[in-house]
Each structure stands twice: as C-alpha cells, then as structure tokens.
Design brief:
There is one protein chain. This protein is α/β, with parallel strands linked by helices. It folds into four domains: 164 residues, Rossmann fold, CATH 3.40.50.300; 66 residues, Arc Repressor Mutant, subunit A (Orthogonal Bundle); 194 residues, Rossmann fold (3-Layer(aba) Sandwich); 172 residues, PCRA, domain 4. The strands form five sheets. A six-stranded parallel beta sheet has the order 3-2-6-7-1-8, with helices on both faces. Helix 5 crosses helix 6, helix 8 packs across helix 9 and helix 8 packs parallel to helix 10. The site of adenosine-5'-triphosphate (ATP) has 19 residues, from helix 2.
C-alpha cells in the first residue's frame, strides 16, 4: 500500500493502463485517489504536461492543484488541472481556426447572452429571453444546433426558440464569440470532425482523470471519449448518490455507458469513509436509503460514534439564523481545541436563504463569505473594464463595444448607436467595423461621425499600447494612464449614489488593476481553472478575462464561516456543518402549493440532502422553521421529510432550545471578555 491510501485506493492509483472507474460514496477518498494518481503517473515517468485532471468548479481545481503541489511540488504546475470549460478554452484557442474562429475570440457571459437573445427575438422581456436561454442551452448540451434541434421541437414556444437560436448562432459567429455551452460543444466538434486535431490531442494526453463524474452531461462524456480515444487511459471517479445536476443536463446514463463503451473498464469500489463520524454517516445512509440503487454500496467510518446529529426547530428564518450563530459561538466555547471560523459552514437550498444568515452573522461580528454569491467580477465597475479588455482582444465583440463606448459615456447618444447597429446588421459586420465603413458618413450627422471617429482612434491607440505593455510594471503604468485618459474615476463619482460608494468602487478598480498587472507579470493562475500563465502583454492577459470575469470565484482561503448553497458545497468538507431551512417545500424544493412531487425530482432533492449531510466531519445540525414568509404572509410550514428519513434516535436528536445554548453563550461571552475567544 502507498502512504496514506488503503488497499482499494492503492489499486485504483496503480491501475494506470486502460480505463478505470472509482465508484464510491461520499468522503471515501475519491478525490484523494485522483491527486495521488497524478503523483503516481509522474513517478512512473509520465511527463506532467501529459496528464489532465478535470474537476467541476474552479474552486475544486484550485484545491486539487494545492493538494497535488503538496505531493509532487513544482511539477504540479504543468499538470492540466482544470474544469471542462477551461480545457475547452485552451483547445479552442489552439485549434479553433479550423472552425473559422480567431484565436482571440471572446467568451460571452450569461448577461451578454441574454441581451443578444433579446435582440435576436426582438423583445425586451427578460423572462422570455431567459426561457430561450434555458431551452437553447439545453439543446446545445445535447449536442444539437439550430438545424439538428429542429427534430426536438414541440409546440409554438420551442419553434420560436429555434428561430431565435438560428439568429443567435449567426450573431455569435459575426461577433467572433462563444458562450459557455460552446466551450464544451466546440471542442467536441473539433475532435469529432477534424482528425488531425483529434490525433494531436490524443497523442498529447497520456492519462485523463475526471472528478465528480456523475455530474457530467452528454457532451462532456462525448468529449472525454474523444480525448482518450480507443486506448481509454482514463480514471473517472464518482458517486451516483451525489448526482445533483440532472436539471442542467447531467445524466447518470454516463455511468451506465462506461462499461459498455469500454469493455476493459476496471471498476473499483471504496467503502471506508474518512470524513465523518459514524453518527453523521448513519444519518446520511438512512436518507439515501429510499433511493433506487444503480450500484450497491456500503460505507462505514472508523472515526467513532461522535456527537449525535441535532435537529433544531425554529420559529422563523430570523430565529433560525440566530440559532445558527448561537450554535457557532457555543461550539467555539465548548469544543477542544477551539474551532476556527473556517471550520464552520452553513448550507442551504437556495441563494436567497443567505440573507437572514448574513444579517445575524454581521450582528454577531462573525466573519463570513458567501460562496457562489455575487462575485467580485460581477460588479458593474469591473464589468465595465472587462468590456474594454474584451474589445481590445476582439474588436468584433459587439456587446463589449456597446458597454465600453458608454462607460464612460463620450457624447455618443443612443440614437447614434442604434443607427450604427442598424448599419452593422445591414452590412453583416460588427459595430467596430461599421465605424470605419466608407458608406457610414451618408447615414450619420457630422457630429455623430466625429464622436465615433474619436472613439475609434482612442480604442486603436489603447489597444496598441496594451499589446506593448509587457510584464507587471508596464501593465500597471498603462492601466493607470488608461483610466486617467477615459476619466473613469470621475465617471464613477457621477454614477454612484454616495461618495462612499464611489470610493469603494474606485477601490475595486484599483484592486482589479493590481491583479491584472500581477497576471501580466506571470504568476501561475489559480483563478482561471488551471491555465498557467507566463509573463505576458496586457493584451494577452485580457484575452482570458471574459472567462475570468464570469466563471471564476476568486476565493482566498480566508478564516471565515462559509455560507453556501448545497450545490456549491459538493466535494468540500468542514468540521462543523449546519443545514438550514430543511423544510418541506424548500428541501425538497417545490414550487407553488405543497403537493405531490415528481418521483425523479424527489430523488434528486434527496441526493442533495445526502450531499449536505456528508459535508460534515464532526458535528451536524439540521434546522427548520415553523413558519416562513410567502410574499407578505406568514404560512405555517413543516419539517422536511428528509429529517424523518435520517431516523435519528428520538432522545438525542432535539436540541434543547434554551438551557444548553444559554449556558454556551454565557461561556462564550466569558471567554471573549477574558480575551481568549475564537481566532480573529
Ligand atoms: P466526496 O464524495 O464528498 O467528493 P471523496 O470521496 O472525494 O468525497 P475525499 O475528499 O477524497 O473524498 O476524502 C475525504 C477525506 O478523507 C479527506 O479529508 C481525505 O484527506 C481523507 N482521506 C481519504 N482517504 C484517506 C486515507 N486513506 N487515509 C486518511 N485519510 C483519508
Ligand atoms: Mg471528491
């Protein structure tokens, strides 16, 4: 056995020739198998650059890179540890030319897509556009385009969506842009239709590892198959009980298909859970019990019985939040050694549930972060700057053009822009190209033309300088000059509600510029899901920005309590976990009145509960509220059926709402006064 691995894990790590699947429950060391296997492959002489490890989120990729670094040191930076999307970016940048894409194509975020769809469908109705977005994305995830999707179309609504999709595809190619779904779809097209590209990638990659395999969708599976070819040197690890992205097209079919598509597949099961106490694991096993089994599994823990799982019933969400805070304080006072803030997570079904919790944590001065919430990069000032970057790297990116030309506004009115847009669509070119079209002067007033020409000159000048701003210092200097030249600080002052807000936003801009300059200086880039950068010009850095600005969650390992949705908690672990809002209707989630819930949906919600429970290492509390606000009214609510399904021993489960917590709180206050509370 290798160090730190049990027998089954060692077998999984040592099986390096041909396909293998590690199928095992939560906390059994699947992700650990991946990191150790990377080390083992390198130990066996494989060049780090020939190994790709694909994870589900940027955060997971960053964490895996950290763990790999611990095992193999510097070589970890050459291993391609990234998400499917980041891998897709790399493949399309390298080989997208055969599909008619320039290497500097732009990546559109969800907002850009929405506004293009509105435009294509001639509507301002966001709801409707979202519906199209959802439908089109669904088709794309099944590997369909506007032509091949025609067979799927049922009814009038889909028919309209299909027409919008056709126009949307035209726009994207005119803008030299791709959306997130394309980042998996285009690599798939590349590999399936271009043999030389396929052969190149298959020769390059010696082994591909995929974590959270149960949540891959059909196109991702096809991509994997093409990447590994017939030899099938890959390792997939997953747990069918943790499949929680069915709603986004993930399919357990991928698990069933593996043994058929790869008859040589070696299936390895892991049974020991190294994460949780027996009490927690038992609750998890009880909850998942009623779900039909794709593969039988047993899971045990040797970490001892541990603290009983607690059920906390509360009056309202506010009360629930206070109880959560009290529990954290109580554990800080009573557990030895004293936990740190980072040892706690409060998990919930839906984003909006964070609000009450945030307020209570603030009131108690407990530092926290909302994982998966509004990220730094979603702030409007950062998105303004990113629009300029995108435009420098791809002049045909119309959404970026429109944002940059109005941030700050430079005397070019809406009407001029609308005319320019009309002209561009008539000549089937981008708005940037339209600015320089000789036919344009016939359409616009001299004043409008002057404004546009001025903007064009500025843009070209800045773009040229960005290309030549090599390395950190040059980039920093250039960014400073640029912001001065466009008067961005003033613009923020004019467009903020208060001076304090303007200052905060300007601070964000500074932070962002620093971060860009560092990237130009060539720091290894954790945030973009595994693409390691070298010293670059600012323009090159800018080319990865769209991806950064949207799918990355830049999270430092701060010592704070984590608030997270259950979905975003996948793969992670904390010593102390509170599951909040475990009410019927919330988890399992149900829209509208309580009623019968579709069996498949119920099973997915149950898996979500299983994921939540199995995040906990030492203690777990599950809370629910007797009433919840629905619109303006209070409605009485019931505990989730999953609480009953945990099948906890009746006498230990219910936490005494008053006596014990009061005692713990008092002790916390005493310790705080004595200056020995939980760490800052
Ligand atoms: P999930 O299904 O939640 O993704 P997982 O199967 O990927 O879980 P890991 O995160 O790899 O599990 O491991 C869970 C915990 O158990 C980690 O803290 C890991 O370091 C530890 N662990 C795994 N295997 C061993 C082992 N053989 N010896 C000691 N600790 C282990
Ligand atoms: Mg894992």
């Amino acid at each position: 056995m290798s160090a730190g691995l049990n027998l089954a894990q060692t077998q999984a790590v040592h099986h390096i020739s041909g396909p293998s699947l590690v199928l095992a429950g939560a906390g059994s060391g699947k992700t650990r198998v991946i990191t150790h296997k990377i080390a083992h492959l390198i130990g066996q002489g494989m060049a780090p650059g020939r190994i790709a490890a694909i994870t589900f989120t940027n955060k997971a990729a960053a964490e895996m890179r950290e763990r790999a670094k611990g095992l193999i040191g510097k070589a970890a930076k050459d291993v391609l540890i990234c998400t499917f999307h980041a891998l897709g970016v790399r493949m399309v940048r390298e080989d997208g030319q055969v599909l008619g894409l320039k290497p500097n194509f732009s990546i559109l975020d969800s907002d850009d897509v929405l506004s293009i769809l509105k435009d294509c469908g001639g509507t301002t109705d966001t709801q409707l556009a979202r519906q199209w977005q959802w439908t089109i994305s669904g088709w794309k995830n099944m590997g369909l385009n506007s032509q091949t999707a025609a067979a799927q179309v049922e009814g009038e609504v889909d028919k309209v969506a299909l027409e919008v999709m056709a126009r949307y595809e035209e726009r994207l190619s005119a803008f030299q842009s791709v959306d997130f779904d394309d980042l998996v779809g285009l690599p798939l097209t590349l590999l399936s239709q271009h043999a030389p590209v396929r052969e190149k990638w298959q020769a390059r990659l010696g082994h591909v590892l995929v974590d959270e395999y149960q949540d891959t969708n059909a196109t991702q599976y096809e991509l994997l198959k093409l990447l590994v070819g017939e030899r099938g040197h890959f390792t997939a690890v997953g747990d069918d009980d943790q499949s929680i992205y069915g709603w986004r097209g993930a399919t357990l079919e991928n698990l069933k298909k593996l043994p058929q598509d790869f008859p040589a597949l070696r299936v390895i099961k892991l049974e020991q859970n190294y994460r949780s106490t027996s009490a927690i694991l038992r609750a998890a096993n009880n909850v998942i019990g009623p779900n039909p089994k794709l593969f039988p599994k047993t899971l045990y823990s040797e970490l001892g019985e541990g603290e009983p799982v607690r059920v906390v019933d509360c009056d309202s969400e506010e009360h629930e939040a206070e109880r959560a805070v009290a529990r954290i304080q109580g554990l800080c006072a009573s557990v030895n050694p004293t936990p740190e803030w980072r040892d706690f997570a409060i998990l919930y079904r839906a984003n909006h549930q964070a609000k009450a919790l945030e307020k209570a944590l603030r009131r108690a001065s407990i530092p926290y972060k909302v994982s998966g919430g509004t990220s730094f990069f979603d702030r409007s000032e950062i998105r303004d700057l990113c629009a300029w970057f995108r435009l420098w790297s791809n002049e045909d990116d119309d959404p970026a053009f429109l944002r940059a030309i109005s941030a700050p506004r430079r005397g070019i009115g809406h009407q001029t822009l609308a005319q320019l847009g009309d002209f561009a669509s008539q000549y089937k070119c981008s708005m940037y190209a339209a600015m320089f079209n000789q036919m344009l002067p016939a359409r616009l007033s001299a004043r409008a033309l002057g404004g546009l020409a001025e903007f064009g000159r500025l843009l070209n000048d800045l773009q040229y300088r960005a290309r030549h701003a090599l390395g950190a210092e040059a980039a920093r200097q250039f960014l400073k000059e640029w912001l001065e030249e466009i008067g961005y600080e003033n613009f923020l002052l004019e467009h903020s509600d208060t001076a304090a807000q303007a200052t905060a936003r300007w601070g964000n801009v500074q932070e962002f510029c620093d971060w860009m300059a560092q990237r130009a200086g060539g720091v290894p880039d954790e945030a973009i899901g595994g693409i390691v950068t070298e010293a670059k010009s600012l323009l090159e850095v800018a080319q990865t920005i769209a991806l950064l600005s949207t799918i990355s969650e830049q999270e430092k390992d701060q010592n704070v309590v984590t608030l997270s949705t259950l979905h975003a908690s996948k793969g992670l672990e904390w010593p102390h976990v509170i599951l909040a809002g475990v009410n019927e209707g919330v988890l399992p989630f149900q829209q509208g009145e309580e009623g019968v819930i579709d069996q498949q949906r119920l099973e997915e919600e149950r898996r979500l509960m299983y994921v939540g429970i199995t995040r906990a290492q030492r203690t777990l509390a599950v809370s629910w509220t007797r009433r919840r606000k629905k619109g303006r009214d209070w409605v009485a609510t019931k505990p989730s059926r999953f609480i009953g399904e945990m099948n906890l021993a009746a006498d230990t489960a219910r936490e005494d709402p008053r006596a014990k917590l009061r005692a713990l709180r008092e002790e916390f206050a005493r310790k705080a006064a004595a200056g020995s509370t939980a760490p800052e």
